[in-house]
Amino acid sequence: MTIQTKKENGILTIEFDRLERKNAITGAMYTTMADALLDAEQDPAVRAVLLTGKPEIFTAGNDLDDFLNNVGEGAMTEDRPVFRFMKALEGCTKPVVAAVSGAAVGIGTTMLMHCDLVYAADNAKFSMPFSQLGLCPEFASSLLVAQAAGYTRAAEKLMLGEAFGAQEAFEMGIVAKVLPAAELLAFAQGQAAKLVALPAASIRATKALMRRPRAAIVAETMGVENKQFSTMLVGAEAKEAFTAFFQKRKPDFSKFD
Question: Which Pfam families has this protein been placed in (predicted)?
């Protein structure tokens, strides 16, 4: 299994479990996560969701071999597993806690903008290297990162695509607290347990009210981003970036306007 799911004491835990591939996410993994989140919506016994990876790594983002095998016109249409996961996470009415240790690459960082309580280990490293791959932001990150951190800092992270640490992620408002790696999971589980013990209707209402002002613009931004992403995914710059990645060389974008 590459995604482990467990329901226990009111908490649905979704764990990346593909350490040999740095928890890189395949279409099948997106489907498993989307199905688990949609099931949790209908299960009154689930009162909180916990997303986590391994102590060594949260996720390296998309599995490029798997992802590129599905590239084509309409690669990011709403029936694709990644988009189903995006909609399921953004639409989850129950509180979502994330525990991030090690690298969180691409969607590994952007998915955190759709969680409610995000905690990072002191070894966490975040990156959104879309520009380095000839692509553009996804999962409404062009909106939400700027809202959290301000335009200038968001531009630095999204345009340059360079990695940044847990303390900077805290300063940017992406994570709520930074903890020693050995304490992270237990702390996040404890926070999820606190949510379970509180009135479920109150927690859902609070989340809904906090997200109401952003709901329409997030949905619109996700749609615009995905159309742009699909176009760029089959473009020459992305082809050069992916070819260079697999050939283990530096890409050359100088021939593109």
Answer: ECH_1
Paired tokens of 86: 């995006």
Q: Which of 143, 95, 86 is nearest to 115 (CA)?
A: 95
**In the sheet where 164-165 sits, what is the strand order?**
57-59, 103-105, 125-127, 164-165
Give the pLDDT confidence of 225-254 residue by residue, as tens digits. Answer: 999 999 999 999 999 999 999 999 999 999
Among 60, 52, 64, CA closest to 27:
64
> Two tokens at 219?
């949905």
Return the residue matching tokens 């697999």: 246
Q: Which amino acid is at 13?
A: T
- Determine which of 49-53, 71-75, 166-170 has the lowest per-residue pLDDT on average: 71-75
Percent of the chain residues past pLDDT 70, beyond the cut:
97
Instruction: Check if the beta carbon of residue 207 is closer than 8 Å to that of residue 114.
Output: no
pLDDT value at position 75?
A: 56
Nearest to 145 by CA among 175, 122, 165, 124: 175
The tokens 């940044």 sit on which residue?
Answer: 164
Q: What pTM value is reported for the model? A: 0.96
Do 48 and 94 touch, CB atoms closer than 8 A? yes
Look at residues 56, 68, 55, 58 and name the one whose alpha carbon lies nearest to residue 27: 68
pLDDT of 71 over the 90 cut: no
Give the HSE-up count for residue 60: Cα atoms under 13 Å, Cβ half-sphere.
Answer: 14
> What DSSP state is assigned to residue 56?
S
C-alpha–C-alpha distance, residues 181 and 163, integer Å? 18
What's the chain's length in residues? 257
What DSSP state is assigned to residue 156?
I
